[in-house]
């Protein structure tokens, strides 16, 4: 995938803001609605957001570290890397998308959760918006963001931001389906 760095960041900013706005609506729901599961093996709204909070706990510090240590000029064009494009294609929301297994550490099933999960998610989205803004003065093509499952693979900054935004969008949409 090859695109304008500026337009990519604008798209990711919009997705992230939409995710935050949707989560804010969840604050109006009851604890019962937030913990409802359509079937025994499925997640509740709170579990969807807690899953994302766990990913944010890993990626947000890595993104901040990369932005503060990477000394590169901006690049007007972003070209996705092989691994980054693969991971983003896996998580990007699609009509009739299939369920995916998650890593045990990222699986919130069975956790006792309350509305604080939603507030935490909204805060992580605010932080991600700040990181996206800061990324406007960085080269999105520079690799250096490790993935959660191995430190051997490093994503380009733009791919890591794409992964975060689309992965969040996927599970926020999942939470919306649970509510409707």
Automatic annotation (TrEMBL):
SUPFAM superfamilies listed in its UniProt record: DinB/YfiT-like putative metalloenzymes
The organism's place on the tree of life at top rank: Bacteria
Pfam families noted in UniProt: DinB_2
Domain spans labelled DinB-like: 18-175
Protein name: DinB-like domain-containing protein
Species in which this protein is naturally found: Flavobacterium album
């Amino acid at each position: 995938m090859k695109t304008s760095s500026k337009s990519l960041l604008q798209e990711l900013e919009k997705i992230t803001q939409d995710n935050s706005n949707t989560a804010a609506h969840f604050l109006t729901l009851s604890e019962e609605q937030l913990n409802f599961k359509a079937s025994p093996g499925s997640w509740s709204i709170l579990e969807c957001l807690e899953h994302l909070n766990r990913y944010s706990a890993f990626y947000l510090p890595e993104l901040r570290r990369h932005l503060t240590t990477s000394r590169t000029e901006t690049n007007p064009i972003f070209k996705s890397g092989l691994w980054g494009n693969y991971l983003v294609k896996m998580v990007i929301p699609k009509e009739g998308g299939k369920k995916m297994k998650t890593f045990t550490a990222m699986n919130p099933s069975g956790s006792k959760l309350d509305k604080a999960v939603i507030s935490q998610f909204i805060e992580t989205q605010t932080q991600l918006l700040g990181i996206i803004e800061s990324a406007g003065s960085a080269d999105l093509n520079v690799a250096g963001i490790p993935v959660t499952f191995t430190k051997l693979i490093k994503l380009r900054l733009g791919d890591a931001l794409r992964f975060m935004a689309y992965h969040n969008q996927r599970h926020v949409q999942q939470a919306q389906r649970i509510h409707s």
